[in-house]
Write a structure and sequence with these properties.
By secondary structure, the chain is of the alpha+beta class. Helix content is 25%, strand content 32%. Strand 9 and strand 10 form a beta hairpin. The longest helix is centred in the middle third of the chain and has 29 residues. 14% of the residues are buried.
Length: 251
């Protein structure tokens, strides 16, 4: 019987093979699960407009004798912007006031006589109706005289002046334009396929060409329920708070 012996030099061990086959450990980070919103965005181009913009129409005719404000000035509602020559209207108002005062005194005198039965009811009632008509005539002339002071219908900035001193203006002729820039509006056209992504109260980001690195916030206030047949879009109205005055209508 022959016995063979083997040399142990270079012999592989089971532990060495297992070490080579095991993958290198990977770092693991654990965290608690949480919920967050998934945002859908839509980009559109529009022009910023003023939500409150009013032409100032002359309510009386006459020559412009004074201009109080200029373009760019901020005015309050009811503030005087310009004055017209109102001498003729003022005299008409004073004439009506004199007639009214005379009739008022006559009415007071006849009231006591009527109570004592010295004046007929028909005469007294006729005087009363005449007095009411004269009071209305005076108030109308007083109102027309007050219209010689052209006043701002809203608070805002004078965006344009249409009259000059010495110019004669007619009733309903434009004299100024007032624009309220504290709150601006942007009208967005939304395709039908994107409509489900929008709802009143959603936010929007506004960027303008003059300040490309500045983001202004807006809020969608309402969405039109009808489709524009010309382009198949809905209109969303977004309001922009412009209290700092950085934005301007037309951007």
């Amino acid at each position: 019987m022959t016995t063979l012996s083997a040399c142990g030099v270079g012999e592989a061990k089971v532990s060495d093979i297992a070490d080579q086959a095991a993958p290198a450990p990977l770092p693991v980070e654990t965290a608690m699960p949480e919920t967050s919103d998934i945002y859908a965005t839509y980009e559109a181009t529009t022009t910023i407009m003023s939500d409150s913009d009013a032409p100032v129409l002359a309510r009386a005719g006459g020559e412009v004798v004074e201009i109080v404000v200029e373009e760019g000035d901020f005015v309050e509602k009811g503030q005087v912007l310009a004055r017209l020559d109102g001498d003729r209207l003022r005299l008409q108002m004073l004439q009506a006031k004199a007639v009214l005062d005379q009739s008022t005194g006559e009415y007071k005198r006849l009231t006591s006589l009527h109570e004592r039965g010295l004046v007929s009811a028909a005469s007294f009632d006729g005087l009363k109706y005449d007095l009411e008509a004269q009071r209305a005539a005076y108030e109308l002339k007083r109102l027309n005289y007050n219209y010689t002071k052209i006043r701002a219908p809203i608070s805002g900035v004078v965006s344009s002046r249409e009259i000059n001193v010495g110019q004669n203006v007619n009733i309903n002729e434009p004299t100024f334009h007032i624009t309220d820039t504290t709150r601006l509006v942007a009208y967005l056209r939304i395709p039908q396929t994107e409509l489900t992504k929008f709802a009143p109260g959603h936010g929007a980001e506004i960027r303008v060409d003059s300040m490309p690195d500045t983001v202004f916030t807006a809020t969608i206030a309402r969405i039109s329920p009808t489709i524009d047949e010309r382009n198949g879009t809905f209109r969303a109205t977004a309001y922009i708070d412009n209290g700092d005055g950085e934005l301007a209508p037309g951007m």
